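Quick check before the chapter quiz. The format below is the same one you will see on the exam, so make sure you can read both the input and the output lines.
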Amino acid sequence: MAAGNFDPQLNILPGGRGVTAKGPLDPGDTVREMCVWVFQRGTGATDDAAAVNMGSGPFPAGRWQLEVNSPGGKATFVPGPAVGYAIALIDAAGADVGAPRTDEARMWSQPVELV
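Here is the expected output.
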């Protein structure tokens, strides 16, 4: 699995109601389906922000990208720290040349910076 499956910085969508989530894939991996969440804590005076999306691509080789959008909460995303969480069903390359491909469920969570 690629080290750090989210890019360190993710772009906030216009209006602040979502984020463009993206990151690397291992060489030869193909995403069959994935679900991505991005969360950001409020400041105490503001609500927490959350956005989600589920998709299956197609994604460019070696990368994945999904726009995640708020499911109806009041909060908007602002520049600063957040957390990305994803689970994906990956069609993974076999360990040996010519080995059959294998479905793998992978999940990851990592801190990100929203810009």
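If your answer matched, good. The beta strands are 9-12, 18-24, 30-40, 49-55, 63-69, 80-92, 102-114.
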